């Protein structure tokens, strides 16, 4: 048990290091989120806009720039976390497979990616909510951050799932952008006058969007919509982790189950990779 815990701790540490080494994503997080939130509030007209809030089964009226800011923040955070998880999963795929070949527990690698995803989503959600608080006062700031967190978690899971199933980074990023664009644009009453359509309840970020708007304008906790968003997030994360596990599986990995137990649970990635008879690629050798 202690050895398995050590394996998990090592995998989490390297997963976080890999995220921190993605300097482009860090720059986007630091500068793009406040820029997007600022432009969404300052550039968009503040004319009153009606938004149907399903938890109270009625429409409420909010400033148009506030609605645009909330929708844009969800969109930006989803894209950023989806991008971060897609790049990290795609670029570490070959190295992860070598670790599995060397007997490294696949579950540790999957849980490490899940931990990195949760932390990344939490950080950008708190950061985004803090910037939104600069321009206006939400009724429930904590719930606003939770809604942003759920939205980021959903698209992070989609990023892992696409990275495990696609070979092309361009194709993966294109799909993340298009899915988020369709999902959130149709829920924005400024872009779509029929944004109260019941069909939108089946969209991935519907629960997150309803949670964010409710947090912004009401003193109500939308339990049902929040649970719906969490279910979407868990579904996407589960699908992503399953796809990651299937991709990291190989015939040779299965053969390692016949190896002595003491040789299957070395928690040093470098030793594990070398034990497989290969060495990390130059790119990942640098990263790890």
Outline of this structure?
This protein has helices at residues 2-20, 23-42, 64-91, 93-101, 106-135, 141-165, 169-185, 206-217, 223-248, 251-255, 269-275, 282-287, and strands at 48-53, 58-63. The protein is mainly alpha-helical and 288 residues long. Helix 3 packs antiparallel against helix 7.
Structural overview:
Strands 1-2 form a two-stranded antiparallel sheet. Residues 257-265 and 270-288 have low confidence and may be disordered. The chain has helices at 2-20, 23-42, 64-91, 93-101, 106-135, 141-165, 169-185, 206-217, 223-248, 251-255, 269-275, 282-287, and strands at 48-53, 58-63. Helix content is 71%, strand content 4%. Strand 1 (48-53) and strand 2 form a beta hairpin. It is mainly α and 288 residues long. The protein contains twelve helices and two strands; from the N terminus they run H-H-E-E-H-H-H-H-H-H-H-H-H-H.
Topology at a glance:
Elements: H1 2-20, H2 23-42, E1 48-53, E2 58-63, H3 64-91, H4 93-101, H5 106-135, H6 141-165, H7 169-185, H8 206-217, H9 223-248, H10 251-255, H11 269-275, H12 282-287
Antiparallel strand pairs: 1-2
Strand content is: under 5%
Portion of residues within helices: over 70%
Mean pLDDT: 83
Inertia-based shape: elongated
Note the gap between the termini.
25 Å
Low-confidence stretches: 257-265, 270-288
In the sheet with the most strands, the strands line up as: 1-2
